[in-house]
Amino acid sequence: MKTKMSLFCGALIALSSTLDGTLFAQMGGYGGGPKSNSSSNSSKAGANPSASPSGKKPGEVLTGGAIVATPITEQEAMKKYPPPNGKSYPVGERDNHQPSGWIISPYSHKVFDCSNIPQDGLALDTRVNKVFVRPRTK
């Protein structure tokens, strides 16, 4: 009886994890998920004015897991998100194994696509609402 119950529980766990993985992939995990037709999105009237010229919107999660960075001006950053302890904002970290412009936040350690932000420009880590500097490329 214990053997049958163990086999049944094992099968149930395997089925559950398979279904969870499938659902996760359909929701956009693993870089999969529904694809949008970019040609139909770009031709719609009243497009989002905060979208970058490349069509990526701040906060959007890209294939590969990077989050499109939210640019912020120095004046707005000083007013809404002053630097920690009166110091300057920390600099994000560049990972040479990632595409150019993908920067790791010093706060949440999430990867942000900062390609729409100039070098030494400010980006907002929307996960923790703190500002960091996009580093210069070497």
Brief account:
This protein has 138 residues and is an alpha+beta fold.
Shape: globular
User: What is the rounded distance between the termini?
Assistant: 65 Å
| Strand order across the largest sheet | 1-5-4-3
Give the biggest sheet: 4 strands, mixed
Query: Could you report the average pLDDT, rounded to the nearest whole number?
Result: 74
Low-confidence stretches: 14-51
The tally of structural domains comes to: 2
Helix percent reads: 25-40%
Q: Structural class, please?
A: alpha+beta
Annotation field: number of helices: 3
What percentage of amino acids are in beta strands? 15-25%
Radius of gyration, Cα only, in angstroms? Answer: 21 Å
Describe the overall structure.
The chain has 138 residues and is of the alpha+beta class. The model is unreliable at 14-51 (pLDDT under 50). It has helices spanning 2-26, 38-42, 74-80; strands at 67-68, 70-72, 93-94, 102-104, 111-113, 122-125, 130-133. It has 3 helices and 7 strands; from the N terminus they run ααββαβββββ. A hairpin with a 4-residue loop joins strand 6 (122-125) and strand 7.
